[in-house]
From TrEMBL:
GO terms for cellular component: ribonucleoprotein complex; ribosome. Residues 44-86 are annotated as: Disordered. Forms part of the polypeptide exit tunnel. One of the primary rRNA binding proteins, this protein initially binds near the 5'-end of the 23S rRNA. It is important during the early stages of 50S assembly. It makes multiple contacts with different domains of the 23S rRNA in the assembled 50S subunit and ribosome. GO terms for molecular function: rRNA binding; structural constituent of ribosome. It comes from the Bacteria. GO terms for biological process: translation. The keyword Chloroplast does not apply. This is Large ribosomal subunit protein uL4. Keywords: Ribonucleoprotein, Ribosomal protein, RNA-binding, rRNA-binding. It comes from Catenibacillus scindens. Part of the 50S ribosomal subunit. It holds the Pfam family Ribosomal_L4.
Amino acid sequence: MAKVSVYNIEGNQVGEMELNDAIFGVEVNEHLVHMAVVNHLAAKRQGTQSARNRSEVSGGGKKPWRQKGTGHARQGSTRAPQWTGGGVVFAPKPRNYEFKINKKERRLALKSVLTSKVNENKFIVLDSFNMDEIKTKKFQAVMNNLKVTKALVVLNEKNDNVFLSARNIPTVKTALTNTINVYDILKYDTVVVTKDAVDTIQEVYA
């Protein structure tokens, strides 16, 4: 099993922790990671875009000129797509962009990105992360102590002081163990996770 150092919020090493190879030591599957990212981004799309086709544009019921003898090309409606003010060919309509990924594939993709973070030494474990007040400056001081800038901070239980202190820092995102996803882990350079959150991840995904 891989071992990682455990730090406190002052940035000092206070111990070591063994990681389960079934989660943090798997063979990285780039194809499944790509699928998971595409799936995540597709699910975030609103899908509310809409335009009118020729059947939905008002007017155009009258033939603009007779069929023959005018020198113009024949036209049946002023709301045909080639006319200004006409309908749109194959107009986009509201739709859902989501697609399904198998549960096993989703879990393997998550394990793959967690493994890659451990391999790159960008997986930092904290013994605990508690704040006695909502203070962005104090949260930033913890990040400075750990020498990280762009980080995903994962907690086991919601801590309003930590979550609210971090929300004004654009390079940091906080999450719970049941909300982590492949996209966020890849987006942020470093994953900062509490020791009890690691235990929960290993219990759920083993």
